[in-house]
Design a protein that fits this description.
By secondary structure, the protein is α/β, with parallel strands linked by helices. Helix content is 36%, strand content 24%. The structure holds cytidine-5'-triphosphate. Residues 288, 290, 292, 294, 321, 323-325, 340-343 line the site of cytidine-5'-triphosphate.
Length: 421
């Protein structure tokens, strides 16, 4: 069950969302997405092109959205006081255009309004999340490439290119529509921060999830981190235009949230250290959200001993995993801005202030792990954001995606000021 804070801060509840569906087989994924939006309290209206109406049932969409579904035949009526495409365009607070076919892309980019969906797209002033999907060869056709490039410059549009995979046409390659779970996240992101691409041209390195330290091939020491905060931070930055490297331990998040990120899976603290050393020189900012296991066996075994021998090995001693955040600060390149995290039980702020001074990073977000709506695995978080000059900001409970955007704002502010405190 979702927590009260997460429910209250659901940015899609009550939103008027227009779902435009064009002719790609990925349209079959839309009814469940429409249902998910309606269940979250969004008002959803669907507009289908004639090709989309061949692929997915307007009756199903009407039923799942609890609204009538609009087709080309509805566009002109002598009983309607205003044109339907203008009515729908002005009604929408957000537009989800998924799947975006080659034809609808071409119409939109070239300003043609010869279907209900095409004219609605021209008439709307709402932000549009556009998720392309088509056959691999179509996606690489020069005309489509040119249209897609032109779309990147459109204001208010968040374009999501297709992912790689096995397509319904039996081709393996680029063309799969972004997964519905990612579309939901991107819609939330649009609702929180709009379509701004203020991270365009910036490179961000994020670490997320737990590390594991192995006693032997069957036993390890770790922590309950799911990686949610770091992954949301990485995806939010990508949606704002950043190029994102994600170094991650074993994650428990929607796999779709990883789309579009450059992934570097790791397991142990030593692997995390090696990945950070390799990637640090190429980025402008770093968010160290990984929950690094603090201790590792001094003498890990390469075979699995029985319980008694394993207890003996555990008693043989432990060493402390090096402080990687501290190392990032020591190896800082140029004006690189570094955000650390801190997890505490009890009185968080004084412990966080001491940690901030000790670690030397530019920003530190500290959260409790013994409160509701915060910490490991929770969809929400709260705490304190510490910055230069003893600056402390209280962060009230909010969804982790909203917090991710808040932290990206703080990082960007520091990047823009050239690291001046
Ligand atoms: N961190 C790190 N290397 C470690 C331990 C932690 O880089 N060996 C990073 C975490 O990724 C986080 C920050 O340091 O950004 C604080 O992590 P936290 O677990 O709160 O604190 P510790 O440094 O482990 O200190 P302590 O457990 O004593 O509070």
């Amino acid at each position: 069950m979702r927590s009260e804070a997460a429910r209250l801060s659901d940015p899609l509840a009550g939103k008027r969302i227009l779902v435009g569906i064009s002719g790609s087989i990925a349209a079959v994924k839309l009814p469940l997405l429409v249902s998910a939006l309606a269940k979250r309290g969004a008002q959803v209206r669907c507009v289908l092109t004639p090709s989309a109406a061949q692929l997915v049932s307007p009756v199903a969409l009407a039923s799942l959205s609890r609204e009538r579904c609009f087709l080309d035949a509805d566009q002109w009526s002598h009983t309607a006081p205003r044109p339907l495409h203008v009515e729908l365009a002005e009604w929408a607070e957000l537009v989800l255009l998924a799947p975006l076919s080659a034809t609808t892309l071409g119409r939109w980019v070239h300003g043609l309004g010869d279907t209900l969906l095409a004219s609605t797209l021209l008439a709307t002033e709402a932000p549009v999340l556009a998720a392309a999907a088509m056959n691999t060869a179509m996606w690489s056709a020069p005309g489509v490439r040119a249209n897609w490039t032109q779309l990147q410059a459109f204001e208010r549009v968040l374009p999501l290119g297709p992912a790689e995979g096995l397509l319904a046409c039996d081709r393996q390659g680029s063309g799969r529509m972004a997964e519905p779970a990612l579309l939901l996240l991107a819609l939330e992101s649009l609702a929180y921060r709009g379509w701004r691409r203020d991270w365009q041209g910036r490179r961000l390195l994020v670490s997320a999830g737990p590390t594991r330290e192995w006693l032997d091939p069957a036993r390890c020491v770790s922590n309950p981190s799911t990686g949610r905060m770091g992954v949301l931070l990485a995806q939010a930055a990508r949606l704002r235009g950043a190029e994102v490297q994600l170094v991650h331990g074993p994650l428990q998040v929607e796999p779709a949230w990883l789309e579009g990120l450059e992934l570097h899976p790791i397991n142990t603290g030593a692997e995390l250290q090696a990945a950070l050393r390799q990637l640090q020189p190429g980025v402008d900012a770093i968010a160290m959200a990984a929950a690094v296991a603090d201790h590792r066996p001094a003498r890990p075994l390469s075979h699995k001993p029985d319980k008694a021998a394993s207890a003996e090995a555990m008693a043989a001693g432990w060493e402390t995993v090096p402080d990687l955040l501290r190392e990032l600060v020591q190896r800082r390149c140029g004006q690189q801005v570094i955000l650390g995290f801190a997890a505490h039980s009890g009185d968080v702020l004084p412990q966080a202030q001491a940690k901030f001074a000790r670690k030397g990073c530019d920003l530190l977000f500290a959260n409790p792990i013994d409160q509701p709506d915060a910490g490991f695995g929770s969809p929400a978080n709260q705490g304190w954001l510490l910055g230069p000059g003893d600056c402390v900001e209280r962060i009230e409970p909010m969804a982790k995606l909203a917090l991710a955007h808040r932290l990206l704002d703080a990082l960007l502010e520091r990047l823009s000021s050239g690291g001046e405190g």
